[in-house]
Amino acid sequence: MLCPYCERDDDRVIDSRASDVGKSIRRRRECQKCNRRFTTFERVEKTSRLMVIKRDGTRVPFDPEKVLRGLQAACGKRPIPEEQKIELVRDVEEELMQIFEREVPSHEVGLRVAHQLKSIDPIVYIRYASEYFDFQDLEDFSRELSDLQDEPPVFPTQSDLFTKK
Ligand SMILES: [Zn+2]
């Protein structure tokens, strides 16, 4: 990125964050020559599609529709507005693009959807998680249930989404 002050192409990113609900990424940069700081806004490139690495190692393009269908199946008749589901899938996609850029293991997708569901609706969370994470037996399942009872659902903050990789 060319420095707007001295036009040298040598900078360091000091901070990155999503702006405008993830439509662009705001980066603070510092020129390594003149040490001045400047901000860039980079559009999230929707055409360079995120690839999902499946368990068998094959790669498929990330498909938000498919994630949404999985979510809808888990929601069943639970009273969760459709817009909230779409919003959730969008948030997850944007987060994945920022963290993984090009390729993301499939379990990371499920993990993030599940993480958000935990605070929206514990029943849907359990349904989704049991489908997605393939609980081996009833014991896994009841352990997960009792974990939920121990800690009441909390809304995830941006920082714990980023550290729970
Ligand atoms: Zn400079």
What can you see in these coordinates?
With 165 residues, the chain is α+β, with helices and mostly antiparallel strands. It has two domains: 11-43; 51-163, no CATH class. It has six helices and six strands, in the order βββββααβαααα. The strands form two sheets. The chain has a three-stranded antiparallel beta sheet, with no helix packed on it. Strands 5-4-6 form a three-stranded mixed beta sheet. The model has no long low-confidence stretch (mean pLDDT 81). Zinc ion is lined by residues 3, 5-6, 8, 31, 33-34, 36.
Strand content: 15-25%
Domains, number: 2
Count, helices: 6
Shape: elongated
Oligomeric status: single chain
Instruction: Give helix and strand order, one letter per element, not per position.
Output: EEEEEHHEHHHH
User: Looking across the biggest beta sheet, what order are the strands in?
Assistant: 1-2-3
Global Rg: 19 Å
Count of extended strands: 6
Backbone structural class: alpha+beta
Poorly predicted runs: none
Largest sheet: 3 strands, antiparallel
- Give the averaged pLDDT, no decimals: 81
Give the ligands present: zinc ion
Straight-line N-to-C gap: 29 Å
Task: For this entry, give a set of tags.
165 residues; 46% helix; binds zinc ion; elongated
What's this entry about, in short?
This protein is an alpha+beta fold and 165 residues long. Helices cover 46% and strands 20% of the residues.
Secondary-structure blueprint:
Elements: E1 11-19, E2 24-31, E3 37-43, E4 51-53, E5 59-61, H1 64-75, H2 82-100, E6 103-105, H3 106-120, H4 122-132, H5 138-150, H6 158-163
Parallel strand pairs: 4-6
Antiparallel strand pairs: 1-2, 2-3, 4-5
Helix pairs in contact: 1-2, 1-4, 2-3, 3-4
The protein binds zinc ion.
Zinc ion is lined by residues 3, 5-6, 8, 31, 33-34, 36.
